[in-house]
Glucose 1-dehydrogenase
Amino acid sequence: MSEKLAGKRAIVTGGATGIGYGIAKRFIAEGAQVIITDIDAQGGTSAAQRLGDNCQFVHHDVSLASQWDGVFAYAEKHFGGLDIMVNVAGVTLMGTIEDLDLETWDKTMAINLRSCFLGCQGAIKLIKSNSAASAGGSIINMASVSAVKAKPELVAYNASKAGVDMMTKSVALHCAVSGYGINVNSINPGVIETDMLKKVISQVEDGDALMDSYRALHPIGRIGQPEDVAAMAVYLASDEASFVTGSAFTVDGALALN
Ligand SMILES: NC(=O)c1ccc[n+]([C@@H]2O[C@H](COP(=O)([O-])OP(=O)(O)OC[C@H]3O[C@@H](n4cnc5c(N)ncnc54)[C@H](O)[C@@H]3O)[C@@H](O)[C@H]2O)c1
């Protein structure tokens, strides 16, 4: 079977582990060259080593505007341009409207939402400068079913992910009417088995009960794996999705219908 992303150049934030790592792995298997970025320097370096010659790691805190220029400059220098931007890095910091402090709210917004704004802004600039032969591209922002399903203890996370979905639509419209050939979509995963899930489980008293309740939320009878999300990302990044822009793609074993 032919590679779906042959010759394409991608940046994946939060690529040291979890969904970002799963996407980078699948992209490389489909013929892409990938820069993974992450705040975790050790994890990112070892992930890039595991992923082989078509993967490079750049240390990067997505919440800091000052660090984005360096990532795009690296892509320009090493790849000569960019075709795919995947904004995956994110955190789940728990708290209700009554107990979440402002610092945690701001941190959640900076890592989950402002990062996507900065990633889209820089990616559009770089993709626009591609040669005519590789014009256009794809931007994918990682939201969550939490963009559409509220939980009392996820006040900041819910708001940040709903923001990602709606910001994605605005950016997609802008790119569409500007004739850039850049497709912009978001993915709303259900519960996916990653380090983030382990952290959430570790924050509560009865982790096993929470895990069982997460499984039960998915009518399909299981929680998801990074590969489930990566498969959607490959499609959205591929030329097959050229008429697909401005949408939020749910990958959740029917959780959102529950
Ligand atoms: N796991 C789930 O159940 C789930 C469900 C829906 C959506 N998501 C979303 O998918 C994305 C990835 O989640 P995951 O489960 O793979 O998480 P994870 O915690 O396993 O991995 C996230 C990665 O992002 C990195 N990161 C965190 N803060 C960063 C920062 N400021 N700058 C750069 N990198 C940073 C971490 O070091 C880590 O490598 C997140 O946006 C998350 O909200 C996850």
Q: What stands out?
A: The chain has one domain: 9-257. The helical segments are 18-29, 41-51, 68-79, 102-128, 155-178, 195-202, 207-217, 226-237. The pocket of nicotinamide-adenine-dinucleotide is lined by residues 13-14, 16-20, 38-40, 43, 60-63, 88-91, 111, 142, 144, 189, 191-192, 194-197 (CB under 6 Å). The longest strand covers residues 182-189.
